[in-house]
Design a protein that fits this description.
GO terms for molecular function: oxidoreductase activity. By secondary structure, the protein is of the alpha/beta class. It is built from 20 helices and twelve strands. The protein has two domains: 170 residues, Glutathione S-transferase Yfyf (Class Pi), Chain A, domain 2 (Up-down Bundle); 172 residues, Rossmann fold (3-Layer(aba) Sandwich). Strand 2 and strand 3 form a beta hairpin.
């Protein structure tokens, strides 16, 4: 006999998960925890990391009080510190190249929240694409790229915030590899020291969507448009929560704690209604290896396994996700379906774009929705954004740029603070014991 509390929990689960009767949750948890987790467990990895620091084998880039960290809960209940300011942006190749309104929305939201950050022009690619497309070189090379970027953040004093979901998952795996395998460290260290660097590992590997989630209630206080009538379907990127899944943030207030907190929690905190659909677990269709060789498979998978269920089962007005490939695939695959008579035209946005637009960001100059293939303008009109006014202003801005009548707009002073760091040829003197640390 179920108690009243147990019955209430069952009702809440059914309301949160309309498809829950058809889901074997034990099987889902087994897939996440046992198939994808590190065999050593994240707590063990972190214990070993601190031991290596004590031995002087690595340098840990610690999250400091000036980073104003917020403590969140991971899949296994362990705490994860999310720094909220003084952040070093590890940007995404695909976002900057295919969805430029994605990173600009992140910066714009940070400006609105008066966050101190560094947009690093001397970051390199994470090489995650090669790694997941089976074109990677070797573990030491992968570790070298990771450590080089983490050292770069460390020497500036800003804590790394990873934009790309693939970089995020890739870096979590590489971090574990460096910590657990001495032979990797022994081969990596002399390479880094030739560059006047050493092995730096950040205390936490943090994805921007985790930052946005823990800041979303504060950001939503500056919301300009009402989203109460918006039904949002969410796709959580595989590389964010299926690679080292125990290092991903969860929250009991988001889907009963059964799915990652970001980006669903951000959408929820901005007032939209989360809708469920049966294929929430599935890949967006992007994958990695097959996008290079079988692109039509990606397009059809995105349409039939993600977009159509989100529309037909969830009646979604918008599809929100939080990774480069997911936004690209879900948005830019729909034209192929339209050509074959499947015209669903479900607008797709990154969570950062979704938040920025709700807060009043310019749809064209900031969110850059003209790079999208789906009807984002229709969604914006639905929430009351004066799209035509913004478009007219944007067209005039472009005309003025062409004619030299105006200067480009910047989200921050050019190379904000970076000139200082680049002007110090001996910026690592403290490491060489020549000056105090």
């Amino acid at each position: 006999m179920l108690s009243q509390d147990e019955k209430q929990i069952q009702r809440e689960v059914r309301e949160a998960f309309p498809m829950s009767d058809d889901v074997d949750w034990n099987e889902v948890y087994q897939r996440i925890i046992y198939r994808y987790s590190t065999p050593h467990g994240l707590e063990h990895v972190k214990e070993e990391m601190y031991k290596l620091e004590d031995k002087g084998e690595i340098i840990i880039h610690h999250i400091k009080p000036y980073n104003n960290p917020v403590e969140a809960q991971t899949l296994n209940g362990s705490p994860k510190k999310i720094p909220t300011t003084k952040l070093w942006h590890h940007k995404s190749c695909g976002q900057c190249g295919h969805i430029p309104g994605y990173p600009t929305s992140v910066f714009w939201v940070m400006n609105k929240l008066e966050i101190d950050y560094l947009d690093e022009p001397h970051q390199t690619s994470c090489t995650g694409w090669n790694y997941h497309a089976s074109g990677a070189s070797n573990p030491v090379a992968l570790a070298g790229v990771y450590v080089r970027n983490m050292w770069r953040a460390y020497e500036t004093g800003y804590f790394p915030l990873i934009h790309c979901g693939t970089s995020f998952g890739h870096y979590k795996e590489v971090r574990n590899m460096i910590i657990l395998h001495k032979e990797i460290r022994d081969k990596l260290r002399p390479i880094m020291r030739k560059l006047d660097m050493d092995i730096v590992i950040p205390e936490e590997v943090v994805h921007y969507s985790e930052w946005l989630y823990v800041m979303s209630k504060k950001a939503a206080q500056q919301k300009k448009y009402n989203l109460d009538n918006i039904k949002a379907a969410v796709h959580t990127p595989c590389h964010v929560y299926k690679l080292v899944p125990e290092d991903t943030v969860y929250d009991p207030e988001v889907f009963q704690g059964r799915r990652p907190a970001a980006p669903s929690g951000t959408v929820q905190n901005f007032g939209a209604k989360l809708v469920d659909y049966s294929t929430w677990w599935d890949c967006c269709g992007f994958g990695f290896r097959h996008i290079l060789t079988e692109r039509e498979f990606s397009r059809s998978f995105a349409l039939f396994k993600k977009v159509i269920p989100a529309v037909e089962e969830g009646n979604a007005d918008i599809f929100v996700t939080s990774d480069t490939g997911c936004v690209t695939t879900l948005d830019k695959s729909q034209w192929a379906g339209k050509a074959h008579g499947f015209n669903y035209n479900l607008p797709v946005l990154a969570d950062a774009q979704f938040a920025a637009l709700a807060m009043g960001a310019d749809p064209y100059i900031i969110a850059q929705i003209h790079w999208h293939a789906t009807d984002v303008e229709g969604f914006l009109r639905k929430i009351g954004v004066p799209v035509d006014d913004y478009k007219e202003k944007f067209v005039q801005y472009l005309q003025d740029l062409r004619e030299g009548k105006t200067e480009p707009q910047y989200l921050y002073p050019k190379h904000r603070k970076i000139d200082f760091y680049l002007s110090l040829p001996d910026r690592v003197k403290w490491y060489k014991k020549e000056v105090p640390k």
